[in-house]
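hiii so um. not sure if this is the right channel but i have a protein structure encoded as tokens and i wanna go backwards to a sequence. like what aa goes where. can anyone help
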């Protein structure tokens, strides 16, 4: 029996509600009545039992009696508290207090009308249909086992954590959970498994070491994990689950090896999540700040690596991936055959550029890297001013050495290499037979000019430069020799 009825109160403030004879009443009927006068509204709540409210009768709810009941209760509490409940109170003291209560009771009795057991409303918590005592009992039972163990429950109350978890199961099934709800499995030790029948909302979080391990999640949910589900520390993910789109692997979460090749294309990896050996990182993966790419994973072609991600030494960097502006390439990496080094990169101090790479058009070799022995400088790149070419390096035909670049000890300048004005040929560098040193290039003391090399006019040749056997001279260069 539900609904809203409009009734009129008489001059004493009594509401009269007719109950039709053809109505089947429930065991209890709850009334919530309001009376508005000007800007003030009085509210009366009352619960009547079926036995006291037979069909065809009238229910009278008197606002005055409700007020009186509350007033008496408040006055008694202010005078005597709950002393009457203390078993050690002497009988004489109890009698004295009862007399005081009688005076208080009679002082308000005359002002509000007749009060009897039958017309003092059984007040309830509005909208629940439960009495205050019943509500308190529910609240007590709806605490975790940890809290329940700190209290001694009244007789008849089941306050064990098992009872709470059973109640939680009953409450959850068929309900609607809010988006992003946290399901923390390690606080419910008596659950043998997560209840089936729920619709898991987007971004639901699963956290904690489940009692019973991976069996905590029943197979019912294997294909029902929501978009953006978050798996947190120590959560036991059972084999067979279909990882949803946008799945989030949280810090300290361990991804089982079963899922190594099953991450969805848009998985999100937080810093500190633990991936299995051979895990394939999908091309549209997202990364949390501070994420370190393990050396034992594979990167799918199309990955774009953010600048805040770092690599463990030994990671194989495949072809087909790119890097955001600001990424610093670390030392100790290996590169798949055919890898194209992109432009705009920075390099960790001590980086050695390996042989066998290709370079994006316009690539500039930074001055803070060195070249692996056997490196062939391609014709399509330039060297940053300050770069020092060392020993063991050769050149493709057509390479142009720009201003500010130096040839270090042991470097060989072959024929076919062009040098711009401002190049420095350092001590110990060798100008090979057939090479041309153009005007504007400087040689340092200790450089070696090979037989057949040509030093143009305007090249600076200081004292201390040596010449190979059979050197036939120069073409009008200026300087000391």
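sure thing!! here u go:
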């Amino acid at each position: 029996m539900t609904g809203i009825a409009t009734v009129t109160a008489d001059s004493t403030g009594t509401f009269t509600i007719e109950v039709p004879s053809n109505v089947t009443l429930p065991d209890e009927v709850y009334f919530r009545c309001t009376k508005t006068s000007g800007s003030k509204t009085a509210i009366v709540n009352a619960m009547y039992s079926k036995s006291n409210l037979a069909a065809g009768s009238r229910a009278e709810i008197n606002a005055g009696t409700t007020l009186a009941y509350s007033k008496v209760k408040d006055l008694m509490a202010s005078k005597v508290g709950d002393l009457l409940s203390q078993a050690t109170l002497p009988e004489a003291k109890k009698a004295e207090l009862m007399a005081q209560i009688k005076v208080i009771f009679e002082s308000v009795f005359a002002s509000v009308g007749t009060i009897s057991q039958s017309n003092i409303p059984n007040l309830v918590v509005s909208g629940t249909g439960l009495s205050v005592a019943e509500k308190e009992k529910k609240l007590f039972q709806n605490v975790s086992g940890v809290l329940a163990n700190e209290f001694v429950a009244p007789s008849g109350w089941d306050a064990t954590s098992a009872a709470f978890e059973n109640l939680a199961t009953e409450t959850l099934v068929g309900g609607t959970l809010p988006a992003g709800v946290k399901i923390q499995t390690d606080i419910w030790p008596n659950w043998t498994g997560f209840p089936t029948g729920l619709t898991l909302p987007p971004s639901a979080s699963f956290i904690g070491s489940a009692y019973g391990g991976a069996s905590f999640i029943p197979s019912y949910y294997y294909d029902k994990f929501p978009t953006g589900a978050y798996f947190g520390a120590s959560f036991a993910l059972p084999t067979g689950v279909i990882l949803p789109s946008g799945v989030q692997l949280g810090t300290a979460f361990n991804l089982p090896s079963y899922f190594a090749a099953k991450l969805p294309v848009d998985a999100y990896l937080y810093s500190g999540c633990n991936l299995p050996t051979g895990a394939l990182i999908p091309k549209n993966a997202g990364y949390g700040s501070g994420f370190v790419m393990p050396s034992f994973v594979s990167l799918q072609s199309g990955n774009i690596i953010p600048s805040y991600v770092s690599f463990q030494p030994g990671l194989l960097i495949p072809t087909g991936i790119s890097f955001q502006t600001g990424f610093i390439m670390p030392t100790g990496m290996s590169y798949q055959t055919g890898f194209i080094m992109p432009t705009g990169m920075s390099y960790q101090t001590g980086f050695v550029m390996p042989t066998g790479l290709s370079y994006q058009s316009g690539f500039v070799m930074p001055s803070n890297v060195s070249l692996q022995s056997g490196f062939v400088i391609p014709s399509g790149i330039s060297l940053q001013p300050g770069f020092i070419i060392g020993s063991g390096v050769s050149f493709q035909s057509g390479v142009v050495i720009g201003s500010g670049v130096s040839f270090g000890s042991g470097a060989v300048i072959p024929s076919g290499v062009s040098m711009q004005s401002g190049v420095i040929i350092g001590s110990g560098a060798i100008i090979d037979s057939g090479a041309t040193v153009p005007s504007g290039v400087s040689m340092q003391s200790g450089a070696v000019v090979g037989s057949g090399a040509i030093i143009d006019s305007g090249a600076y040749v200081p004292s201390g430069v040596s010449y190979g056997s059979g050197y036939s001279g120069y073409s009008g260069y200026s300087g000391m020799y």
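oh and Residues 79-87, 109-127, 143-151, 475-481 have pLDDT under 50 and may be disordered.
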